[in-house]
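Sync notes, pocket subgroup
Present: LS, DG
LS reminded everyone that the earlier model was apo-only. Rerun requested with copper (II) ion included. Inputs:
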Amino acid sequence: MNKREFLRAGAALAGSACLGNHALWAASADPQSSAAGPVELSAGLVEQRLAASGAATQLWGFNGQVPGPVLRYRKGQRLDLSLHNTLPISTTLHWHGVRVPHAMDGVPHVTQPPVPQGGRFRYHFDLPDSGTFWYHPHHSSLEQVGRGLYGALIVEEERPVEVDREVVCVLGDFLVNAATGIIAPFGQIGELAGDGRWGNVVTVNGKPLAWNEVVRAGDRLRLRLINAATARVFALTVAGAESWVIAYDGQAVTPHPARKPLRLGPGMRVDLIVDFNGQPGDRAYLRDSRAKAAVVEFAYAGEPPLRTGARGAPMALARNQFSPLNLKKAVSHHIQFTGGDSGPPAIGWIDGKEISYAEMKRRYGLAWTVNSHAAHEDAHEHVPLLTMKRGETQVLVLTNATGFGHPMHLHGHFFKVLKYNDEAPAHEEWRDTVWMNSWDEVEIAFVAGEPGDWMFHCHILEHAAAGMMGTFRVE
Ligand code: C2O
Ligand code: CU
């Protein structure tokens, strides 16, 4: 395919996605562009109305929109774009889940200096894995993501599964004053040391619930769901249609019916295949039992069914290749999390001195520890939590000794979940973010990848900012 054919094929694919109208390919259709995807992401102020009646809210977004444009590539392609910072503060871009070279990981002071106001930074790397990913700043993240700086990054399989169309849904929420539309201040200690910041306006693709889609009886859709909220956890069910989970965090899983509510913690993604097996005029829903609301409402069009019976094509995704685990020779580590306002108090040291939980909160605004250390996101130096040798298999036993659930995210690697509380998952799961319930013990394994310091943190961004983060050093 030459470039024009590629763009046309891409536009045809993307045009039906629910973000299709939002300048998905606007920049890539630019004849100046030499690659798929836009050539620039400009972070800046965006006005958006979050309630039909209320005043407009000042959000932060990319290229004038919240969420930012959907970046769409094919596996093996190169992403090459420049971040332009027009925000009032410094920023960076992190490519959540993508196995990027270390220098492209977007972690301030660890992989790059923060991009100052007015500055630019060029991110360029090959996309080794297909999947549903997303991008967001990694600097003052709880505020920057909490104001709307995020977007979907889709890397298509070499041979995508056959569906009638695809819908990308970026879930988020905002905490705003309903009358004035003003965003509530960030970093309140109650949010940091509690459940994080849960917004009062839940959004799909930047619009308050529910997102509307018209489907035709017989349609098979692929839904790519991304939780970009800083703290909100979704518990999702599909009603009025038949659904299967085909990927967690973008990585293939044996297709299985999505029966129980699917927990989607911050940072996590799930891909579903949904067969609309109802009748013309019916309705179907993607519901969230936490927000007690429909997240997406599907209206079956009046046309006769597209087909009788199920579409029947295979829905298993091709797997990405990760270095094979060598569990017999693995190095294992224990990681324990403590802290938060309920449950046992955090045990911790700061600057080499033992410190009480109350003191930790009052003096430093920190509330969580990882193996007794409380780190700060904007710290200029991170003492690595663990040091590992490239190519060696690592087994981590994670113990959640807190009264809260946490989505733990590792940069630059996918890991296999070996056990949730002594039980292997029903289907092999490769993830970049794993959910731990209060008092869970979760065992994960991966092969240490490219040398460098890689972040490992809770993706409830208030928790990360209040100590629940650290780095692994690969040598
Ligand atoms: Cu989605 Cu360290 O981030
Ligand atoms: Cu957490």
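DG: The longest strand covers residues 40-49.
LS: Residues 406, 458, 460, 463, 468 surround copper (II) ion (ligand 2) (CB under 6 Å).
Action: DG to write up.
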